[in-house]
Every structure is written in structure tokens, then in C-alpha cells.
Fold:
Amino acid sequence: MEEDKIVSIEERIPRLRESRKKKANRTLLAYLMLFFILIAIIVYLQSPFSNINEIIVNGNEVIPHEQIVEYSQINEGQNIWRIFPKEIEQSILEHPLVKEINVLRKFPQTILIDVKEKKIVGYVKSQNDYQPITEEGIIIPLNSKTTSTNVPIFNNFDDEQYLQRLAQELSETPDHILRLISEIHWNPTDKNKYKIMLYMNDGFTVHATIRDFANKITSYPSVVSQLDKSEQFIIHMDVGVYVETIKK
Structure:
């Protein structure tokens, strides 16, 4: 029985040769595949198929698409693999209205730019233009002739300290309340530098104060819901909340 299990050297040599041949063929095939992959990559990188043919900007509402592209310093026709997303993000973050930015390559020829803008809490009129005011109270010279209907127009704010304080309060004001305000006028007195007057989109007038404005203005919808819309009122929301009837 033991003699039947013994394989002669003459029988083993062909098997070893065949095994080595198969192994060599697999290795050669692997090297050839790697070679052709590298050639394909080089050809792709040098061909127009690796050039940018579209730049998509998402999330911008106030900043024009062209302005984001300008800040990115990307041009269509550039090689998509010769740009660096982190460097592009830093360039776009220099825009005064950009809060966050994310740049991605989208295979094969697209650059995707996701923008998160700083909150616009109002606009101030300058000659024939309306310039947005950010949540930090900074006026941005965008030279836009149109304004968003979702935020108020600021009037008579010639002191930056009070403008910034109101901007901070408005940044904390719920959006559905902010949309109700048409205009905000700064009406300081010797006793109260924080006094403001609001013209609302529903026709009412509100006398208020910048201090704790975001908290106090939240009661506005419930107050006006109890008023007769056919009459005129001034709603006081400074020290306390009360309604003054305007006699016709």
C-alpha cells in the first residue's frame, strides 16, 4: 500500500512545471492589466475628458452664482484633477456673505460647490441700491437693486452700535416673525436710545425697543389675532405689551 502512494520524481516534474507556468501567466496578466490601467489613466488625464465642463453651485440665495464661481477661481476647461478643493473653499470663504463652503469633484467633469450663506436680517437703502445686513450687523455692498421680501428695510440707523445690536436680535428672531416686518426705523430719544418703530406687512405699526426684541416680538401674531382689522392700532411692545387705538 505504501508503494502505491509513492509518486516518482518523473511524475512530479511536469506537475511542478505546469503549476509554475500558470503562476507566471497570472503574474504576467496582472502586470499587463496594471500597465494598461496606468496608460488609460495617463491618456484620461491628458484628454479633454478630464477637463471641467460644468460648475454647479447649490445653497446660494443672495450671492449670485457668477460671484461664487469668480471667488472660486475655477474656469471651465481646467483639468479637474489639478484643482484642490480645500484651497478653493478658502478662496470662497473670503466672500463676506459666505458662512460655510464645501467643494467636491463630481466624476467625470463637474465641480459641485455647496454654499451656506450668512443670515440676512435686513437691507439698508444706499442711493438706488439695497445692501444686505448680515447677522453680525455688517452691511455688504452687493449693489442689488432688488431685496428679499423675507426681511425688513432698515431706516435711519446712523449708529453702528445700535445697528449691530438689532441685527443680533433679528438673527434670533424666528423666520416666520421676521417675514411679517416691512420696515424698521430707529427713533432714539434722550431717554431711550434703543427705541425703534416697525411697519408691519399687515398694516399695523409697532413701537418697540432693541433690547430683548427677539423675545418680545414673538407675541405679535397672538396680539394682532385679537384686533379688528378694519380699525387702526399702534402696538406697544417695549416695556409692556398694550394696544393703542388710533382715532380717525
Observations:
- The longest strand covers residues 98-106.
- The chain has a mean pLDDT of 86.
- The first helix runs from residue 2 to 5.
